[in-house]
Amino acid sequence: MVKKIERDYGRFREIIHGRIRKDLRKYITKGEFIGKQGKHMVSIPIPQISIPHFRYGKNDGSGVGQGDGDVGTPVSPGDPGTGTGAGEMPGDHLLEVDVSLDDLAKILGEELELPNITPKGKRTVISEKERYTGIARVGPESLRHFKRTYREALKRQLSLGLYNPDDPMVVPIRRDKRYRTWRVKEIPHNNAVIIYMMDVSGSMGDEQKEIVRIEAFWIDTWLRSQYKKIACRYIVHDAVAREVDQHTFYHVKESGGTKISSAFLLANEIINTEYDPYEWNIYPMHFSDGDNWGSEDTRKCIDLLERELLPKSNIFCYGQVKSAYGSGQFKRDLDEHFRSHEKLITSEIRDKEGIYESIKEFLGKGK
After folding, report:
1. Please, are residues 191 and 228 in contact by the beta-carbon 8 Å criterion?
2. pTM for this one?
3. Per-10-residue mean pLDDT for the chain, 367 residues long?
4. Would you say 88 and 207 are in contact if contact means Cβ atoms under 8 Å apart?
5. How far apart are CA 111 and CA 316, in angstroms?
6. Which DSSP string do the residues of 331-349 spell out, in sequence order?
7. Measured CA distances, 57 to 60, 67, 76, 81 (Å)
8. Strand partners, 132
9. What is the pLDDT at residue 48?
10. Of 24, 61, 67, 64, nearest to 46 (Cα)?
11. For residue 155, how many C-alpha atoms fall within 13 Å in the half-sphere facing its CB?
């Protein structure tokens, strides 16, 4: 039987999830709460849900119930305040709730109608897991079940009249001993790696990097709900590419020209050395404002995609963030060359409001 408090808590969680789903577009476009992450939880401010609670303040020795007094002594009014008086407008009540990343991914999938990802068939790693499933009369002493063994010994002594309540000593013999048994179960683990690449040249400003940061968080959240194990690698580039950690990826400030092929070459090197396409589901994701160093480098990028990256990837996502200084030509070149290639998805992100649709474009094919 479900306890009342558990039923009430479940109802409260449903209300929370309903509020998040209703305002999901707002949460996606605002990245403030992304920094409020625990290990598997994220804090989200929810408006207009007030929970009664005690508030503890400092005891300053004044007020009702303080000091000496007799029964029936009237309470004198307090000192007049120096403020502007009582307000008449309602206040905004914000409640910060912790939501698991799994719940957040579920809400994202339901609201954007994202299909569950179907991993590539040959990219499934099978691992073995031992599970204790029963009790046997023989086995190694390390797996002896002490409670079952004691119970069998006690039953035997009682049935034979050997048990003495005044001297309750129970000594098991060989036939009393019971042991845990196990079986080996094969568990498929679909491994995935996301390779984030970002243009950090002079034309990519703080606003563009913030858009990348927000979109990467939601993509990461969804993919982690689809795979048992996931790895993330981060590449930044201007005219030269280098691998960095997550913090550097989101906070780096650089300038210079743009050579997109440098990032594609580094990503391909990482895949070849560490992520066998027959064991890993691979998701390269590149974000740029569309400027590139000449048509020659663009042709090199197209060649790398065609020969190396697309055959090894589940999907390759290119997000073009609108910038006042970027030409946006790279997306046009990709669209023209690959047209409706099933593994290449391009998306134009004009501002933070465009993140919502961009996520749907990237993840909507379920690959």
Report:
1. yes
2. 0.62
3. 58 63 66 53 53 60 60 61 52 58 73 69 52 80 87 88 85 88 63 90 81 84 79 91 88 80 96 90 91 88 95 92 81 89 90 86 76
4. no
5. 23
6. HHHHHHHHTT-TTEEEEEE
7. 9, 17, 22, 19
8. 182
9. 45
10. 24
11. 9
- In this structure, the chain runs to a length of 367
CATH number of 190-363: 3.40.50.410
Ramachandran region of residue 163, left (φ > 0), alpha (ψ -120 to 50) or beta? Answer: beta
Q: Tell me the two tokens of residue 37.
A: 């992450």
Residue the block writes with tokens 């243009």: 199
Start-end of CATH 3.40.50.410 domains in the chain: 190-363
pLDDT of residue 1: 44
What is the pLDDT, as a whole number, of residue 342?
87
Task: Give whole-number Cα distances, 273 to 16, 267, 270, 281, in Å.
Answer: 44, 10, 5, 15
Contact 291, 318 (CB under 8 A): no
Burial of 116 (0-12, 13-18, 19+ CB in 10 A): exposed
> Is-contact 244 234, C-beta < 8 A?
yes
Tokens found for residue 313: 């990837």
Distance CA 228, CA 119 (A): 12
pLDDT of residue 253: 74
CB atoms within 10 A of CB 40: 10
